[in-house]
Amino acid sequence: MKYSLPQLASPQPVVANEVLLVGNGDLRLSANQVCWPAQADMEARVTAAFAAEGVRVRRAHAYDPTLGHGFIWNQRMGMDIFQTIHPVAPLIVAESVWQYSYHVLAGLRDHRGPILTVANWAGQWPGLVGLLNLNGSLTKMGVRYSTIWSEDFTDDFFREGIRQWLKDEHITHDTSHVRPLDLAALPEAEVQLGRALATQLRREKAIIGIFDEGCMGMYNAIIDDELLNATGIYKERLSQSGLVAAMQQVSDSEAQEVRRWLDERGVTFVTGPNPDTDLTDAQILEQCKMYIAAVRIGDTFHCDAIGIQYQQGLKDMVPASDLVEGLLNNVERPPVYHAETGAELYPGRPLPDFNEVDECAALDAVVTNRVWTAMSLDPATTLHDIRWGEQYTGDGVDDFVWVFEISGAAPASHFIDGYAGARSERQPPMYFRLGGGTLKGISKPGEIVWSRVYVQGDALHADLGRASVVQLPPAETERRWQATTPQWPIMHAVLHGVTRDQMMAQHKANHLNVAYGSSAANADQALAAKAAMLAELGLQVNLCGVNASK
Q1: Assigned CATH for 18-168
Q2: pTM of the model as a whole
């Protein structure tokens, strides 16, 4: 019998001294249109840098005049474009924006040629965050890649890097700050505490509530059940539609009590009359209803932590979840009562929230909550984007100072003056059509432990390190806010024993978790106990930079 065989598209041939380039973007049209000029400028600079090395960079997909941008903006488009790319062609993934990694993962998973991820060193949209998410996703998939970044693509670091990539098909970065955990080098009391807490977690088990998986294409933020369950943590798969339904059962008077509580503690709500561009009282009331609904659902399913995807779907139904998530992560927060019994839910403690349903951050938050609580420390924790950073000299600071930001999940106890130092400002309309406020503040000076759980080689890993949060002058803080997203909470962080480029080379995610110690010595102790607990749970733990085991 004769069959009709499918006709497959033939990829374009590999051309000597030519590198192909793809630009992956957002799923949201408004974001892609606004951010396109920055991407076009960055691609021109990358093209010029390669031309100086005698290599032509050619875009593998065209600018779309109808859409007003040249990004890959959905998964099917990415699959179709990669059908035209020869599987062994040298390939650049250039990012100056936040991008949905899953748009290009199918093509990159099958690509056998050298892959180079590139970002502009800027906080604007932000390409660095998108690059780190893509790198984390490729790491999880086991796809070999190289990565590099630059402010203007003319510096020696960038040019030497691309020369090595063109010659050897990889770039070597310094990761000497990373060393495998040596439990014997940690203080015995903290090791015993970490091990005991791990044994308790595995025996009693914990539940993380997932309000829909896979926010913004973050493949790296999903932990398969087989890996997660081995730590004693299990998922309760919840629905964002269920959250909306639960919000409808919350009365206006209950929501107004949450708003009154926040007003009394000094939170400044920056409101206006136009819901399309301003934060309105009606939006805040809906956020207060979401807060109550989230706590009640968490209680119903006995969740130890919850994560709200927001973004697709929920963003078209209700205001942003960020104010809600910041409240959840704080020990002191508006009380929420059972709808029938009137009993207070999760009294005197946070219900840890992992922003954007980042399950790696969820595992970290559960561990942090237990270690910090056992050590009588403030267990408030949050994840942050590794947004950007610059050298700062003056006012007692002479170091590279990172900008850590997240869209609102930072708890008030992390801020200078707590709730009284917090503002709630409308989320940018480009991303958040229905508005809603953030919980914005400047993180207080102090000593923190930073960490990241990630998947590599079909196993869970964790990198941990220490940092100091510094206070910069108001003018410098404002400059950094304006260079990034001024509506979001900000943390000025100086990493201990880790340079800018070392951090970028090693980190396997756009996010990292942070929690405060009460002193430098105390933060070292907390890091040691956390490292021991993670190791006992079966994670492969690295210590990064200068910390408790130096």
Answers
A1: 3.40.50.10940
A2: 0.96
